């Protein structure tokens, strides 16, 4: 097994883009936190509803991670998003390689759409009069934006070969995605896309959400899902073989 991932080295442009994406999501998180700190007493949100808001945010983060994961895996290629897509393709044929990349290399895939979607949601929420509802919504946006910044970190926990007892307990309690739960996705790329805690996988897979969406996109655009995935896997497996054998001649 190669010890160096195939796309470890990034260009200066790629480094700048990944950091800007992560910084944008971090700004959204900070703005949500400032709002929540400033309006805690004015909002009057009671503790039971605060806990509900946290849980809703954690579920929504899982669902949104699945949506991003599905779009990246199914419809995008390296010509659209470059190295980020290449890393995800590599993960399909060499799952353990994902642990060898830096945090910022992977975080941008979730941080970029999070900054756009939840940044917009937070901005709209901040414009309405402060109330228990607006405060609860801001909690939801804070949790989702934070989880999406660390989305790949959550995902990577399901690939750790050595898991400390606290992590094993959290996975058994379904607080974070477990290896057994996530491995189904590596066997069948139409299920288990949600990678934060896996909560959203149960309703999504039960109604076959991702397969239905694929048929809808294909019927609308004529594009086939994962059209070049087999070619990608062949190239990556060939590259892996060359690295293992070394130069010939």
Q: Could you explain how this protein is built, in words?
A:
- The protein is mainly alpha-helical.
- The protein has one domain (12-240).
- It is 71% helix and 0% strand.
- It has 13 helices and no strands.
- The longest helix has 29 residues, at 47-75.
- The chain is globular, with a radius of gyration of 20 Å.
- The two termini are 22 Å apart.
Task: Furnish the topology, listing elements before pairings.
Elements: H1 12-38, H2 40-43, H3 47-75, H4 78-81, H5 83-93, H6 103-127, H7 132-149, H8 151-157, H9 165-172, H10 179-187, H11 201-206, H12 209-221, H13 229-245
Helix pairs in contact: 1-6, 1-7, 3-7, 5-13, 6-7
In a few lines, what is going on in this structure?
This protein has 249 residues and is mainly α.
What's the multimeric state? single chain
Unreliably modeled segments: 241-249
Rounded to the nearest angstrom, the distance between the terminal CA atoms is 22 Å
Structural class assignment: mainly alpha
Number of strands: 0
Query: What's the helix count?
Result: 13
Helix fraction, binned, reads over 70%
Strand residues, percent: under 5%
Rg, rounded, reads: 20 Å
- Largest β sheet strand count, sense and barrel closure: none
Q: What is the N-to-C order of secondary-structure elements (H for helix, E for strand)?
A: HHHHHHHHHHHHH
Count up the domains. Answer: 1
Please, what is the average pLDDT?
A: 89
Gross geometry? globular
């Amino acid at each position: 097994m190669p010890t160096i991932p195939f796309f470890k080295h990034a260009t200066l442009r790629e480094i700048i883009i990944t950091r800007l994406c992560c910084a944008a999501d971090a700004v959204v998180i900070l703005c949500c936190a400032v709002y929540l700190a400033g309006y805690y007493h004015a909002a009057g949100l009671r503790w039971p509803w605060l806990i509900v808001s946290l849980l809703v945010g954690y579920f929504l983060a899982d669902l949104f991670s699945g949506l991003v994961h599905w779009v990246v895996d199914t419809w995008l290629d390296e010509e659209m998003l470059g190295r980020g897509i290449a890393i995800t393709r590599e993960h399909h044929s060499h799952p353990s390689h994902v642990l060898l990349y830096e945090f910022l290399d992977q975080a941008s895939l979730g941080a970029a759409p999070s900054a756009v979607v939840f940044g917009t949601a937070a901005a709209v929420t901040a414009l309405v009069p402060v109330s228990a509802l607006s405060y609860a919504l801001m909690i939801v946006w804070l949790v989702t934006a934070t989880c999406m910044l660390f989305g790949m970190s959550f995902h990577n926990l399901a690939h750790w070969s050595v898991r400390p007892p606290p992590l094993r307990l959290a996975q058994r309690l379904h607080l974070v995605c477990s290896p057994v739960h996530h491995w189904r996705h590596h066997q069948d790329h139409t299920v288990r896309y949600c990678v934060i805690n896996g909560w959203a996988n149960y309703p999504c897979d039960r109604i076959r959400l991702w397969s239905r969406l694929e048929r809808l996109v294909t019927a609308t655009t004529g594009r086939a899902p994962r059209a070049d995935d087999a070619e990608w896997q062949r190239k990556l497996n060939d590259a892996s073989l060359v690295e293992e054998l070394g130069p010939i001649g």
